[in-house]
Amino acid sequence: MIAIGIDPGTVSIDICGLADGAPLLDRSFPTADALASPEAFLAELTRHGTPDLIAGPSGYGLPLRHARDLTDEDLTLAFLAAPGEAGGIGGLRRLARVLAGSGLPLVFTPGVIHLPTVPAYRKLNRVDLGTADKVAAAVLAVAELSVGRAEGDAPSFVLLELGGAFTAAVAVEGGTIVDGVGGSSGPPGWRAAGAWDGEVAFLAGGVTKAMLFGGGRESLPGAPGLEAYVEGAVKAALALLASAPSAEAFVLSGRHAADPDVHLMLERKLGLIAPVRTLVGFGTEAKVGAQGGAVLADGLLGGRYRAVVDRLRVREARGTALDHLTVISPATARARLGL
To answer: Which of 23, 37, 80, 135 is the most buried (most CB within 10 A)?
Structure first.
């Protein structure tokens, strides 16, 4: 039984596969290369035979949906960009279309906001509580922290995802995702500014998708930039303790979790509250989001990780990322996306 996960990132697009729960595929491609040649990327997915299930590149996420059932509206809601919109990961929608039309058993998976385990009041006026790849990383963390535990003893923790562009965090209580802080609504990222002051958005006169991907750590070099980056991540992690009061650890993942200076600073600050550990996973090339996607696909197939995935209630994901808006109406948001 072959289960595969795909993690589309700003820097790389990664593939990870499991065969009956054991590692099979572990690849990372520069994002520009994968998007320029989706056919070659597609061929890599079938190098070891036709997969039984693929957790595809799902952007901000959708309730669990097979690619054959996807509509144009679904793709717009997954990537939250109107046709022709510049910025974001350009070409990702085209890759998703190629994958959806390939005939492979590919599913789109939910973001944090779609999950029934997150109370509705935590979703108020939020769109990005954590994209689908952040859910996948949390799935991997639950699986990893469950090793050696008694049956029914599920882990509680805060996952801090330090990606190539954004920083996000996910709160897990008793093996279920209960809250999150998304990259575009969270702390400063490596490339992206994270949450904007509303007055800045007003003064900008208009906010494009491209603007969400700038203003982060890279725009403020030296010690001040690093301090702002790390302290922002610490504040996000500590804030989520309100939603996961039983958290036994802070779990670091993402491209910059391996940065020695970043890791040391986070350990010094967060280690005063709870142990800090790095999500190890089972791959050497693919990011943890792809590894978690493979775990998710395996669990959905009823494989080795079935219990982990069942507890997360991924199959019960519902709604859209626009359902909980009051500052603007969901209808206004849909119109902005051309829907």
So the answer is: 135
